[in-house]
Design goal:
ALAD, 10 strands, porphobilinogen synthase activity, alpha/beta, zinc ion binding
Length: 326
């Protein structure tokens, strides 16, 4: 008779637990989001996201140096322009805030990867991710005219020195359009990290404070995915892969780990999970009230993302995680 297996035998000592640990989080898994604003010496804390700031470009550069020194390989840049209009001019103009921040970071920290959010909502006066039909207050974005703006934006970002283009508007055909625009402009080797499965989520609330991008009317449910749908996410990733995506993102992450798992099982491309603002804010609020152990909760969450299949994690906790990992 074989002896009874006792799983607890492998849990008796910290080093033994470490030896048999199945999932490992490292600094190389992390991507840190940053919000660029005009001005100088600006560091304005986002009220709904303690520890997260809108930063002028000089401060962005300081953050980039710190991030790199912590062993984090990449940042993702979002921009808040001085002026917004219906054509999202700040997104695709050569002197747009993200373009200027990208150039400054690459000059200061050449080996830090700069990912750029390629979307229009921060730059439109109405807060939606593209062109709207005149007089339409439903928030229904015109798909194909928006693709032309996204192409211009991606090329401008690439010209500024971006390392990875990350389109997030969930327009039909947006990866194909951006790939064509990049290739036509000589950026055939520029990778695309597509927000392939981006849900119309209530978890984005604090981000809209940080990026000043809340829709002025309507909502984004005509282009972002229904949280009730899982199979649809697989359809979206199939389309993005066919159009030329090099990496895929699931957003949000915490309530969508089943989607991360399904996406990872369906493709051999790298999969990123975006640990979004609402997820971050809930942890910070509970920690500030003394209700949870912030470090343990954050590290458990990061490990869960990796266990569910994420290769990369975009998170506002990135600097803290890197420090905790040592």
């Amino acid at each position: 008779m074989f002896p009874t297996h006792r799983p607890r035998r492998l849990r008796q000592h910290p080093q033994l637990r470490r030896m048999v640990q199945e999932t490992l989080v490292t600094q190389a898994d992390l991507i840190y989001p940053l919000f660029a604003v005009p001005g100088s010496q600006v560091a304005k804390e986002v009220s709904s996201m303690p520890g997260v700031y809108q930063l002028s470009i000089d401060k962005i550069v300081e953050e980039a140096k710190e991030v790199y020194d912590l062993g984090i390989p990449a940042i993702i840049l979002f921009g808040i322009p001085d002026d917004k209009d219906t054509d999202a001019t700040g997104a695709w103009h050569d002197c747009g805030i993200v373009q200027k921040a990208t150039t400054a970071v690459k000059e200061a920290v050449p080996d830090l990867m700069v990912i750029v959010d390629t979307c229009l909502c921060e730059y439109t006066s109405h807060g939606h991710c593209g062109y709207l039909e005149v007089g339409d207050l439903s928030g229904r974005v015109l798909n194909d005219p928006t693709l032309e703006l996204l192409k211009k934006t991606a090329v401008a970002q690439a010209n500024a020195g971006a390392d990875i283009i990350a389109p997030s508007g969930m327009m039909d055909g947006f990866v194909q359009a951006i790939r064509a625009g990049l290739d036509e402009s000589g950026f055939e080797d520029m990778p695309i990290l597509s927000y392939a499965a981006k849900y119309a989520s209530a978890y984005y609330g604090p981000f809209r404070d940080a990026a000043e991008s809340a829709p002025q009317f309507g909502d984004r449910r005509t282009y972002q995915m229904d949280p009730a749908n899982g199979t649809e996410a697989l359809k979206e990733i199939e389309l993005d892969i066919a159009e030329g995506a090099d990496m895929l993102m699931v957003k949000p992450a915490l309530a969508y780990m089943d989607i991360i798992w399904r996406v990872k099982q369906a493709t051999n491309l790298p999969v990123a999970a975006y640990n979004v603002s609402g997820e971050y804010a809930m942890v910070k609020a509970a920690a500030l009230n003394g209700w949870i152990d912030e470090q343990k909760v954050v590290m458990e969450t990061m490990t869960s993302f990796k266990r569910s299949g994420a290769d990369l994690i975009l998170t506002y906790h990135a600097k803290d995680v890197a420090r905790w990992l040592g």
